[in-house]
Amino acid sequence: MKADSNPILDFATEYVFPAFSELTGTDKIVAFGDHSHKCPIYVRQTPPCTAECPAGEDIRGINRYLNGIEKSDDPMRSAWETAVDTNPFPAIMGRICPHPCQGGCNRQYLDESVAINANEHAFGNYGIEKGLKLPGPGPDTGRRVAVIGGGPAGLSAAYQLRRRGHAVTIFDANEKLGGMVLYGIMGYRVDRKVLEAEIARIIELGIETKMGVRVGRDVTMEQLEAEYDAVFIGIGAQAGRGLPVPGFAGQAGATNAIEFLRNYEVMGDDIPIGRKVLVIGDGNVAMDVARLALRLGSESAVVSGVPRGEMACFENEFEDAVREGADMHYMTGTLEVLRGADGNVRGLLCSKMERKQKGEEGWNSPIPFLRYRSTGETFEIEADMVVVAIGQSTDMSGFEAVTGSAPWLRVDRNFRIPGRVKLFGGGDAVKVDLITTAVGHGRKAAQSIDAFLNGEPMPEQGYREVTKAQKQDMLYFLPSPQARRRSLEPEVVLGNHDELLLPLEASEVKAESERCMSCGLCFDCKQCVSFCPQEAISRYRDNPTGEKVYTHYAKCIGCHICSLVCPSGYIQMGMGDGL
Ligand SMILES: Cc1cc2nc3c(=O)[nH]c(=O)nc-3n(C[C@H](O)[C@H](O)[C@H](O)COP(=O)(O)OP(=O)(O)OC[C@H]3O[C@@H](n4cnc5c(N)ncnc54)[C@H](O)[C@@H]3O)c2cc1C
Ligand code: SF4
Ligand code: SF4
Ligand code: SF4
Q1: Is the pLDDT of residue 37 over 90?
Q2: Residue 400 neighbours by CB under 8 Å, 6+ apart
Q3: Entry pTM
């Protein structure tokens, strides 16, 4: 949809009024409204950006500080403080979140979405540079919570619980905190210093950590349940999927992406790697592996079972991998990892793929790979290492009493494990997704745990009215293109693990925040005041922004004009309806 015209508003503004006595129906309402019986009410709604951000950031609130609608001596600081209320990792997310918030942003219907993620990158950096602190721990409640897993889900839960005054201990099998963000996501995407700074701020709140402790091996779930008042399980999906073809399982030179990336984080450049690395898969993780292999001095190629247009990776991840030198093989199925007489990998036996005919099993499957089948024609690709990037699964050993034989953690809408009163969970262990999702799960689970510890009912999520673009008069805003971050073009990829994405300049951040249309909340533009034919709307200067307009209902004739010209969609016609 493109909002280049608002037909109702056009009609209202271009209308040539005939004599009142000649008017009927809608014309009468638009012109004079004397029969609508509806007057404006002011409804604060959820903006679509926040509705689409799984971490639940108050993006409109952030932009209102950055663009000066909300007054602050230090807008970047206020933006940062608003963000960390729900998401303690703005600098990490600002770099690598695929920003579903922007997919929801109503500004896209005028020109392009607001660059929410790029702004998050900038004020996230600001928070680190200025050493900003998270809100401190609340008064001690005497309650103790065990958090299993120090990835984004566990850290988010620990932070929110500590803020509420509960004592928190994180148990993690790894040597360092961070989960997949450290052991899966490469330093050229998130510098380790950024990761360390955002994690340290959480731990500084007084959170105990027990690293190198695997629950299920070093300590049992039963022990934790007995010792703590509540337990949050955020163990992620730590196992990479293997390839069910001959020559793969348990043999040298063939591994999965999770193991490969983890080994790199632990061993650094000394990781054993082939000269020619073939990566099987078509998602972002496959691109990550291919790009790491190039940085380690190998040739790398991606083997995808589907055509380019159906690969699961994001466009930019694909382009970066190709630009850095990765080869691509499309429509290529894998039949066998070929090994020489010495047992070493010598290549991959592949088959050409083709689209299934209509009606064949899987021809219209939602999973692209299943829509293709082998033509029977085979060929070989030379390689001395094969890395499979076809997804992750959980390792639930030690959690059988909680999950039964299910491979995933089951939680209810309060992130409580059904039938287990003090057990809660979230993150990739429930469903492999994104950091922002894990952060949102951790926060909501912490709210539930807090309610449980206080003997209160589980929190209700409640109905949220999300602002529709059609309700906003977008013509108020001047078109302006979205600011784009620059990316360093690595002249030499080999050995270069530096971060590539550059933050926006301060002036660009401000300009970008000014593109925000404050969906669902008044920003004091005064359109309604100027357009009201009855002069029925006043401003109250001393009221906080968002509550500045007031209708004198004795003067209002219900003409709708204020709601038609409101750029934020804050005005709804309702009061008096049916009288
Ligand atoms: C290669 C790769 C690239 C990715 N890129 C992106 C990206 O660009 N953007 C994005 O948003 N998301 C990305 N993701 C997804 C993201 O990393 C995950 O969604 C997120 O880390 C999940 O958080 P989590 O806390 O649920 O689990 P994890 O991050 O997996 O953390 C789980 C933690 O639990 C610990 N643990 C597991 N079992 C036990 C046990 N029995 N006892 C004690 N501790 C245990 C682990 O050691 C680990 O620290 C990527 C994932 C991968 C693998
Ligand atoms: S965490 Fe992701 S979805 Fe949420 S505001 Fe940031 S970029 Fe958008
Ligand atoms: S214009 Fe602003 S408030 Fe509206 S969806 Fe986009 S970022 Fe959110
Ligand atoms: S028209 Fe402007 S001043 Fe009036 S309610 Fe809407 S945003 Fe606020």
Answers
A1: no
A2: none
A3: 0.92
